[in-house]
């Protein structure tokens, strides 16, 4: 049987419902039945389109990030970083941080979720960040042998994790911009 395609509007509606449910009940308690009920769709349709709860959740998170990092090219690394930060408002950033915190606990008990997160969200983001950094090297903004290049993902993930733990405050655009200026760019020699 041919896989019927959902309209982009319907797909976005489903993803939004999944993220809402995820925020309300967490990954463990999220069920395909609950998603089906919330979205007035059949469980069979959900499984046909996404195959598993893990894939549906991760694709919903991915859908929430309309711009891929590798597509940003302002002509400077600083401009690319600022453009990346500007694509998500503070409210969205806080929501995403809360969702990722919830998922970081769930990955320990759900290898399928961990696999889906790596394949569908983390690896594409790392690839995009790699593209962004490689362009900076190609333009001569960053030395190719700069040892900090390989730690940029760690720095950015650390910024998200540490802000909440150290200051008990959510990450926002102002913090990320300041962090990039104080930590990331100096480490890269920009």
Short description:
By secondary structure, the chain is an all-alpha fold. The protein has 9 helices and no strands.
SS-derived structural category: mainly alpha
- Mean pLDDT value: 87
What is the quaternary state of this protein? single chain
Write the H/E string, N to C: HHHHHHHHH
Shape: elongated
The tally of beta strands, per DSSP, is 0
> What composes the largest sheet?
none
Give me the Rg, rounded. Answer: 18 Å
In which range does the helix fraction lie?
A: over 70%
Helix count equals 9
Distance between the termini: 54 Å
Contiguous runs where pLDDT drops below 50 for at least 5 residues: none
Q: How big a fraction of the residues is strand?
A: under 5%
Account of the protein in words:
By secondary structure, the protein is mainly alpha-helical. Helix content is 72%, strand content 0%. The protein contains nine helices and no strands. Helix 1 crosses helix 4 (53-63), helix 4 packs parallel to helix 7 and helix 8 (152-167) packs across helix 9 (173-188).
Short key terms for the protein model shown above:
190 residues; mainly alpha; 9 helices; 72% helix
């Amino acid at each position: 049987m041919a896989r019927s395609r959902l309209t982009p509007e319907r797909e976005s509606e489903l993803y939004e419902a999944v993220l809402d449910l995820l925020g309300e009940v967490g990954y463990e308690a999220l069920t395909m039945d609950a998603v089906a009920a919330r979205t007035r769709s059949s469980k069979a349709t959900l499984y046909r389109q996404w195959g598993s709860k893990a894939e549906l959740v991760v694709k919903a998170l991915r859908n929430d990030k309309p711009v891929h990092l590798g597509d940003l090219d302002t002509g400077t690394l600083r401009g690319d970083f600022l453009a990346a930060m500007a694509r998500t408002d503070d409210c969205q950033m806080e929501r995403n941080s809360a969702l990722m915190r919830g998922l970081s606990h769930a990955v320990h008990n759900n290898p399928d979720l961990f696999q889906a997160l790596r394949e569908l969200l983390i690896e594409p983001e790392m690839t995009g960040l790699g593209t962004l950094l490689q362009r900076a090297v190609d333009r001569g903004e960053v030395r190719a042998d700069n040892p900090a290049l390989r730690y940029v993902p760690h720095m950015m993930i650390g910024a998200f994790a540490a802000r909440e733990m150290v200051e008990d405050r959510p990450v926002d655009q102002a913090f990320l911009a300041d962090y990039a200026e104080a930590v990331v760019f100096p480490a890269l020699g920009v």
